[in-house]
Amino acid sequence: MDVLGNGLLRKKIVTKGQGHDSKPQRGQEVTIDLVTRLSDGTVAEESHQVVLILGDHEVAEALDMTVNLMELGEKSEIISDAKYCYGAEGKPPHIPSGENLSFIVELKNIEEGPYNTSVPVRKRLDWVDRKRATGNQLYLKKKFFEASGAYLKCTRVLQQAANQDQPEEIKAEIEMFSLKCHNNLAATRMMQEQWKEALQACQVAEKIDPKNLKTLMRKAKILSQLGELNRGISTLKIAADIDPDDLSNTGGVFQIIQKAV
Question: Which biological process terms from the Gene Ontology are attached to this UniProt entry (predicted)?
Answer without folding.
Answer: negative regulation of apoptotic process
